[in-house]
Fold this sequence. Notes:
By secondary structure, this protein is of the alpha/beta class.
Amino acid sequence: MFExxxxxxxxEGLNEMDGxxxxxxxKKIAAPAVRAGMTxxxxxxxxxxxxxxxxxxxxxxxxxxxxxxxxxxxxxxxSGALTPAxxxxxxIIPLIEHGMVDWIVSTGANLYHDTHFALGKALHAGSPFxxxxxxxxxxxxxxxxxxxxxxxxxxxxxxxxxxxFADEFQRTMGTAEFHNLVxxxxxxxxxxxxxxxxxxxxxxxxxxxxxxxxxxxDSSIGMNVAAAxxxxxxxxxxxxxxxxxxxxxxxxxxxxGHSAVVIFGGGSPKNFMLQTEPHIQEVLxxxxxxxxxxxxxxxxxxxxxxxxxxxPSEAVSCGKVDPEYLPDAIVCYLDTTVAMPILTAYxxxxxxxxxxxxxxxRRGEMxxxxxxxxxxxxxxxx
Length: 382
């Protein structure tokens, strides 16, 4: 059972309990031998006893015991090249389909590379120790140890560029609507190819999970939107819609239960997900306490002052995280490519699928609710 209060006691406890220091109340280190046939969940529970493995076990328990409660709305942020490494199909899609993520903020790059798979393009496992000049001469692109043909980029660019002239895209929209439309077209491509489960955007479209990009111009998708505009496409992205929609999701979550954030990496997606609370409190003038549950996987240090490494306790100071639930907040200093498959396997084994919240279809309703609740008036006064 996950008991954050006990963990807090271990950190602060000098009190004597039954004649024994409260520092020594933790489970004895007596790990069983790893055996053939152990499940991921068994491995985590029995052998992840110290250092970042212990933090990962705490993360798995926090996610499955508290975040997956019926009254918790879960947001997930994605940064770093995750989809090229196969984490879209192996982890993110199963989490979406099991109702374990309700809304997403991602870099545009992750969604662009996700598109390759729905289009039937191949990416290959390779080596980081290759001559990049030779790769360039041979039309091969490298993302660390993932290799693929330069034609994959050209074909994906062609898909997006041509899509920008479709009738449905000839207007201004937020990134959630943009990605939902893209997901519809990619779903048709999957069906034509006779494949399934290749694309995060397709899974999100089918599950009505809104997918946002915090910097819509900062990816090849954004570059193709811009290029098409030069030739008369009227497709335009309005980031203000995203700011208000994401805040509306979090506000409704707080009104009806709790908001949880699961952060893979850091960067702009992390900030965009967390800034929902300052937007609600500081800008819209609504009473709120911050996100209830905070879970991050990162390799960023906090002492450089960057947002990627900022701790949940620091986030309390500007209203992003509810201080009452700070003992539940967990940061794992661990590569996402290791953490995400373990968390996914543990959660699917430990917890039944949740009903889909289908927040995408309710964006307008939630926007009206937060606009009506905000006391702000023209001129900036409440």
